[in-house]
Inverse folding.
């Protein structure tokens, strides 16, 4: 079985390196096919491992030693257990589909080959992240996906906004990574190892204060990758990247790495429920906060990005409250329907010649039926309507919050569910139905190539049926993760399900009703709360004004005032004083005998004075 | 193999003398060959090096002025081995990439002499000789900057020379004083470093002597606020000068801390730990911010060197095996990465005769190969895992975490700020549309530049993925040194501190 | 009664006169006179102290100084006359060819 581990891990790397050889060449269709095939191989290997783990339990391989210094020993080791194999399957499945989809999507791009190289490199990093058996290995993947995200967001580097967004994403993630690094250092000096099993065995006997610190540091890392408030602004800006990237990285896989980290460290977080609760509270806040921004935005991709943010909040609520398997389950179902939503949006973008404003679309159902249906399916799943996938996972999260007695959290998520349903269908209505606004701009939309649509079918199918695997999923992952006991009576459970479904359905109905009649009036756009939402609560502006600008000004100040005017000036001053002393004392050598005699006398007097006043004590 | 160290030290200088006889047309090939032979000699040294022996190997000892205990004393251990290889390697690569045409003969001979002093500093164990090599290294560098530099070259060269020279004068006094103390304690004269390691000095004396050595090393590293010669030197030096300066000469300072300050004055080192850590943190943050404000690409990298050297010093003063091993590894990785970055700036300077970022933009479109190599080096510079930059930075910070976590957090902000200035540089120069007409016709890397850069790229990746052989060798000698430190300390608190920072468990 | 103190005071006064002369005079001849005064001030001191201690070596030293000073003056005056013949002035300010 070991060889399947290596195949699953290294097939994407091989793909990336092979394709990279052609990176500078014009488009070669073969690179796309090769990359897709190799990622497909990785997917098959992951499925084989899934079956194997199901039958024989976890698999642990150690490839080689990496770092050896002092007491520190870090190997390249990989563990394929119930959690990582689920992640592997999800990642490779979505990746394969995104790769195939990209062959169509990037068809006309002159950097076709380069794109596939980056995309495969991302899959490799993500596989390292989920498969590693130690924290530093995870950190390799963690930074690796950050790098690939940087490369892919800034893929169209000639666009200023794209390269800016890429840098923003990288730097924001770095801020969080520092937190994570600190957590790793603390773990090391407490335990002397980074291996998950050793660390989790050791935390049980550790001081709670230290476990709390570790938990906080690691979660700071998770906040960056999963774009939790206040490090969330990069995710919306990251939509500058090509749409398949948004689907793969910024919806299905990389952004869920933070959730994966919390799930992976479940044994640690169960020891510190107060931190767990804080995570859940932040998650619930982000769920509503992000959903509210999605309500008014007119950018097709940004709406979906905010939706992702909001759903990540849901996952953190589950993970924070100790329902790890539910968080993982929602992570998986979300990966399916959200990537589907993005890829559908990609089709729409292509049809609309890269127009992103949904107000300029409308009535696209007529020309792109398949995409419309797929996106509707994904939206229904996202809204959480029975029997679609989102229903099972999201409902469970609300149930967890209620069961925990955290009624505020539950209520926030409940409202969030209504908003989710509303904005999803606002998007569907504005894009596919209603007036054909695009005719005003002279655009003739067309459906994507058939193979692209076929590639999306599996995701569509999964978005519908993934929920029915709930019990087998639970049984499988809870062999590793802790069980989550729900103490609610059947009546309460049904009432919760009914309530959540009701608000979701009413959200959908409201959106359909409102937008089939031309939407809201323009006057709404002058309201303060609309302004607040469309400007993302002014947070990006605040960051620009109160962090970036002062930083730039301070840097200039440090350079031009402190470094040049003070530090270097002092150095030069010393040199100048010495030089000036020389210049001035040179006048002593006037060549005039009586001047010299006078100096001689001065010297004599000085020496005499020295001899008299500084006699060595006898 | 008996005299390989002497050969390593003096071969470049001898070859440099012979170089005067070589015809001008073939001098570059001559230089490359000599440096390549020197590099292979250092590789042979590594092959012959016994990885399980933490002490000095290939020792050569001849009395020089026996009445005063001066000797010609060479030896190599895990700490110096890789710095020697780095010196020879970087010299070879810098020769390959050399693009200067005028007075090339003198340049190559100067660099060969410089190579002698660099290798000498790392290999010599007699302190008087060490001082001689240390000071001699300034002369070729003064000449390289002053003769082949840009417009303000004389100012920069003199500043470099006088600043670093003034710093080391106190060190000479310190050296003589220690010799005097050694004579007092044992009745014999000796300038041999291993002898001095056994000398226990009173606490107050240690403080004074530590200060005397500190100034010399701090200026060389360069530590804040003694760093201002560096931007000028880099800004004005020719590419080959910048490469060697950043890659090797700065390491002489941090090597001095490891080789002299810690083992000679353990109590003073622990006593001054926090002030030095604070200076290091200032270096990391301050230099990173100043780097962000720069307009000249070369200055960004010059200031980034200061920022990275801050982490090196921090790791050294972590006083544990993780930190010191990490800091030595970081010296190597910074040598390779900053050398490569300066070379890359040289590549673009050769083509456009400007280093200002606003004159570029969109280079990724016209020079994809250049952009790729630059990107890899940039990622190594910001310390991405699986590149060489991560290992040392991670270990240094991990080591210092045991001493003080808040300071580590502050120093760690270097990894954020590093990303800020490096990515900004990359965005300004490589991304966006090609705006300047001159940039539209730029040629990508040529064969010569690729030959020089590909080994560096390969090292960045290989040592990032598999640093173990180097780390274990360094680690062995570092652990031996730590045992010495702990035994030698006269203050029981120092020993306790050293044992404590090397122990797992009990950290907040 | 004339004591050692009186002699030493005289020495001091003479020495100061000589010193001021050395510092203030610009005529080379006057400079020679001042130097002579300085030397003789010291001679008086030597002789006085030697008398006080009853030790002859002081007086011997004074003779040496007189002899050396005489020869010095002879050579010096010779050079001075030569200089005067060549330049027509023995003013110190005209002797500045070694100005730094």
């Amino acid at each position: 079985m070991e060889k399947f581990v290596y195949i699953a891990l290294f097939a994407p790397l091989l793909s990336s390196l092979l394709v990279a050889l052609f990176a500078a060449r014009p488009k070669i269709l073969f690179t796309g096919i090769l990359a897709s095939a190799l990622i497909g191989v990785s997917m098959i290997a992951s499925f084989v491992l899934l079956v194997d783990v199901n039958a024989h339990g976890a698999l642990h391989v150690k490839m080689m030693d990496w770092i050896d210094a002092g007491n520190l020993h870090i190997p390249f080791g990989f563990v394929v257990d119930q959690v990582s194999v689920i992640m592997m399957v999800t990642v490779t499945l979505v990746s394969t589909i995104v790769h195939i989809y990209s062959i169509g999507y990037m068809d006309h791009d002159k950097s076709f080959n380069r794109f596939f190289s980056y995309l495969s490199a991302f899959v490799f990093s993500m596989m390292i992240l989920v498969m590693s058996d130690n924290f530093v290995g995870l950190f390799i993947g963690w930074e690796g996906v950050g790098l690939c995200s940087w490369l892919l967001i800034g893929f169209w580097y000639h666009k200023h906004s794209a390269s800016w967004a890429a840098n923003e994403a990288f730097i924001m993630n770095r801020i969080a990574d520092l937190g994570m690094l600190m957590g790793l250092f603390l773990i090391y000096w407490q335990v002397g190892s980074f291996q998950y099993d050793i660390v989790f065995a050791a935390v049980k006997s550790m001081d709670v204060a230290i476990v709390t610190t570790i938990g906080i540091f690691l979660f700071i890392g998770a906040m960056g990758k999963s774009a939790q408030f206040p490090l969330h602004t990069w995710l919306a800006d990251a939509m500058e990247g090509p749409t398949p990237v948004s689907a793969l990285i910024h919806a299905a896989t990389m952004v869920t790495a933070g959730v994966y980290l919390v799930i992976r460290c479940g044994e640690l977080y169960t020891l510190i429920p107060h931190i767990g609760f804080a995570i859940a509270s932040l998650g619930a806040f982000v769920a509503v906060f992000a959903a509210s921004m999605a309500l008014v935005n007119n950018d097709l991709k940004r709406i979906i990005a905010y939706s992702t943010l909001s759903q990540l909040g849901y996952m953190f609520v589950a993970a924070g409250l100790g329902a790890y398997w539910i968080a993982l389950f929602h992570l998986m179902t979300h990966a399916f329907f959200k990537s589907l939503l993005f890829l559908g949006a990609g089709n729409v973008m292509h049809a609309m010649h890269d127009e992103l404003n949904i107000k300029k679309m409308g009535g696209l159902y007529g020309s792109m039926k398949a995409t419309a249906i797929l996106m509707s399916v994904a939206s229904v799943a996202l809204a959480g309507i029975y029997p679609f996938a989102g229903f099972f996972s999201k409902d469970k999260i609300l149930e967890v919050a209620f069961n925990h007695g955290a009624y505020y959290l539950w209520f926030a998520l409940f409202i969030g569910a209504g908003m989710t349903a509303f904005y999803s269908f606002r998007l569907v209505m504005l894009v596919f139905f209603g007036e054909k606004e695009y005719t005003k701009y002279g655009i003739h939309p067309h459906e994507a190539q058939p193979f692209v649509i076929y590639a999306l079918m599996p995701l569509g199918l999964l978005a519908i049926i993934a929920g029915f695997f709930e019990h087998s999923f639970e049984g499988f992952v809870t062999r590793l993760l802790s069980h989550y006991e729900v103490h609610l009576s059947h009546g309460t459970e049904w009432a919760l399900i009914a309530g959540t479904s009701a608000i979701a359905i009413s959200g959908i109905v409201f959106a359909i009703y409102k937008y089939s009649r031309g939407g809201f009036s323009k006057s709404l756009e002058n309201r303060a709360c609309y302004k607040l939402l469309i400007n993302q609560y002014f947070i990006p502006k605040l960051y620009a004004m109160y962090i970036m600008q002062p930083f730039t000004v301070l840097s200039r100040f440090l350079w031009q005032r402190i470094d040049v005017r003070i530090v270097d000036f002092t150095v030069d001053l010393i040199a100048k004083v010495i030089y000036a002393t020389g210049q001035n004392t040179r006048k002593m050598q006037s060549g005039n005998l009586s001047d010299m005699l006078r100096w001689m006398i001065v010297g004599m007097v000085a020496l005499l004075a020295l001899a008299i006043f500084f006699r060595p004590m006898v | 193999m008996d005299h390989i160290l002497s050969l390593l030290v003096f071969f470049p200088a001898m070859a440099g003398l012979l170089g005067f006889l070589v015809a001008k047309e073939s001098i570059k090939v001559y230089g490359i060959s000599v440096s390549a032979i020197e590099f292979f000699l250092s590789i042979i040294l590594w092959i012959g090096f016994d990885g399980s022996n933490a002490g000095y190997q290939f020792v050569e000892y001849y009395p020089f002025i026996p009445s005063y205990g001066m000797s010609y004393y060479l030896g190599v251990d895990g700490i110096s081995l890789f710095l020697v290889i780095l010196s020879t390697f970087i010299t070879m690569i810098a020769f390959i990439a050399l693009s200067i045409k005028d007075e090339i003969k003198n340049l190559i001979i100067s660099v060969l002499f410089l190579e002698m002093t660099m290798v000498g500093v790392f290999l010599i164990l007699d302190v008087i000789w060490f001082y001689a090599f240390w000071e001699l290294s300034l002369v070729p560098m003064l000449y390289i900057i002053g003769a082949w530099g840009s417009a303000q070259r004389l100012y920069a060269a003199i500043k470099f020379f006088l600043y670093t020279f003034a710093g080391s004068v106190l060190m000479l006094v310190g050296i003589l004083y220690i010799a005097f103390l050694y004579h007092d304690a044992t009745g014999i004269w000796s300038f041999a470093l291993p002898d001095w390691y056994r000398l226990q000095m009173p606490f107050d004396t240690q403080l004074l002597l530590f200060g005397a050595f500190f100034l010399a090393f701090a200026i060389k590293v360069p530590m804040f606020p003694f760093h201002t010669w560096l931007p000028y030197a880099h800004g004005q030096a020719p590419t080959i000068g910048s490469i060697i300066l950043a890659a090797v000469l700065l390491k002489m300072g941090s090597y001095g801390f490891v080789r002299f300050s810690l083992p000679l004055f353990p109590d003073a080192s622990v006593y001054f730990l926090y002030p030095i850590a604070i200076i290091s943190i200032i270096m990391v943050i301050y230099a990173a911010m100043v780097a962000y404000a720069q307009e000249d690409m070369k200055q960004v990298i010059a200031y980034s060197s200061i920022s990275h050297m801050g982490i090196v010093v921090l790791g050294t003063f972590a006083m544990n095996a993780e930190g010191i091993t990490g800091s030595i590894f970081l010296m190597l990785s910074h040598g390779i990465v900053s050398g490569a970055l300066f070379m890359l700036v040289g590549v673009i300077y050769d083509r456009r005769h400007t280093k200002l970022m606003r004159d570029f933009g969109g280079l990724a479109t016209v020079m994809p190969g250049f952009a790729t190599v630059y990107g890899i080096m940039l990622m190594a510079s910001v310390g991405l895992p699986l590149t060489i930059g991560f290992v040392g930075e991670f270990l240094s910070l991990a080591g210092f975490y045991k001493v003080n976590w808040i300071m580590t957090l502050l120093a760690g902000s270097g990894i954020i700020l590093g990303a800020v200035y490096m990515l900004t540089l990359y965005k300004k120069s490589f991304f966006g549309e090609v705006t300047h007409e001159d940039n539209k016709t730029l040629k990508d890397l040529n064969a010569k530049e690729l030959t020089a850069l590909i080994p560096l790229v390969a090292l960045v990746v290989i040592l990032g993925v598999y640093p173990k052989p180097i780390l274990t060798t360094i680690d062995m000698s570092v652990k031996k040194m730590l045992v010495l430190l702990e035994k030698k300390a006269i203050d029981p608190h120092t020993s306790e501190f050293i044992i404590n920072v090397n122990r797992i468990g009990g950290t907040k | 009664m004339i004591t050692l103190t009186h002699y030493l005071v005289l020495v001091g006064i003479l020495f100061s006169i000589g010193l001021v002369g050395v510092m203030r005079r610009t005529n080379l001849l006057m400079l020679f006179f001042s130097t002579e005064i300085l030397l003789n001030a010291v001679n008086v001191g030597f002789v006085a102290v030697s008398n006080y201690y009853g030790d002859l070596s002081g007086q011997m030293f004074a003779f040496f100084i007189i002899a050396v000073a005489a020869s010095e003056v002879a050579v010096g005056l010779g050079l001075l006359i030569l200089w005067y013949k060549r330049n027509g002035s023995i003013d110190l300010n005209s002797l500045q060819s070694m100005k730094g």
